[in-house]
Amino acid sequence: MTQRLESLLSVLKGHRIFIQTHNFPDPDAIASAYGVQRLLEHFDMKAMIIYSGTVAKTSTANMLDMIGIEMTDIEQISDLSAKDAIITVDSQTNNSNIAKIDGTVVACIDHHPTVVHYDYKFRDVRICGSCSTLVAGYFFESSLPMDESTATALMYGLRMDTEDLKRGMTEQDVEVFAKLFSIADHEKLKTLARQQMDFADLKAYTMALSNIKVFGDIGFSFIDSEASDGLIASVCDFMLTLVEVQFAIAYSYRGNGLKFSVRSSIEYLDAGTITTNALEGIGTGGGHSTMAGGYLPFESIEDAEFDLEEEIQNRFINAVYFCRELQNVLTDPLIKFIENTPEHAEDIPPESVQAVNN
After folding, report:
1. What are the start and end residues of each CATH 3.10.310.40 domain in the chain?
2. Helix 186-194 crosses helix 148-162 at what angle (to 10 degrees)?
3. By three-state DSSP, how is residue 292 classified?
4. Which class does domain 201-355 fall in?
5. Most distant CA atoms of the chain, gap in Å
6. Alpha helices, DSSP H, located in the chain
7. Does domain 3-194 bear CATH number 3.30.70.3340?
8. What does the alpha-carbon distance between residue 162 and residue 236 come to, in Å, rounded to a whole number?
9. Which helix (H) or strand (E) holds 354?
10. Mind listing the pLDDT tens digit for each residue in 281-331?
11. Which of 116, 120, 183, 332 has the fewest CB atoms within 10 Å, i.e. the most exposed one?
């Protein structure tokens, strides 16, 4: 047993254990939580996977059914207390994307950069392509057996968060992928890979594509409905396939606010940092250099008089501009456009916008 695993087990012993994902959990969060749950079973420790929000339809819901993963909505638990031990996976305490609940957060396993520091008894935050990679490592590093269901879940989480090892991956991701490959159920993985969207999503997807606007080399798409995380992310990924787009922002309604997905194809345009800066004061966000997410609660802007869509565009354009300014990269079309605009992007001239319409 590694020292890391021994430390994790020591802070959990003697407590009722809950594994908390970020709100509206995606495949990587679900797989990571399931992996930790199965890991603890090796040591006769039971844990419940909990979440807030909803589980996105289609592929994510299919993942739960096909692999047999049980998750419980936090609202269904009424007896949490300070004596209960909580492990956060694929997120970190005090981030905007994870609910604050009763119980004591004692441990964290995450692959994202830290935005808000917290004093965990056990902290495993390492930057890599997926949280599933880290969780799988606990099995392999301690030579613990892993069953087919666990390997299938972790491999699916890894594949989804790294876009099949094409985005944000590290050497560690590749090594873990190779080990999971020999254990996982590939027929289930093929089925999950095919079922990314249901027929009802097509209308929202069509709307998203018709709403794409490009400012310089920044693409925006507002989905005027409550879309799943997978759909928002796929729209964002699609925008990066456009020759004109190097930085993409897609967002839709989510509960009482807006959910953002952000992508960058340029190394020095850190998607996590730019999203954090763009939403400062009205929401929160963060993530990796190539992919990030955010949330804007409507209550934070209920007294505002600005046009929300324009405000979002201006904030991201300015955040990208200042990131480029810091890097002394001043030759792209966005910079030229902004420098000719009063107060940068306060009033975006219509002729600077490229719209993709039906």
Report:
1. 201-355
2. 40
3. strand
4. alpha beta
5. 65
6. 3-12, 27-41, 59-67, 131-141, 148-162, 171-181, 186-194, 201-210, 229-240, 271-278, 308-326, 333-339
7. no
8. 14
9. strand 353-355
10. 998 888 888 888 888 999 888 878 789 999 999 999 999 988 887 776 554
11. 116
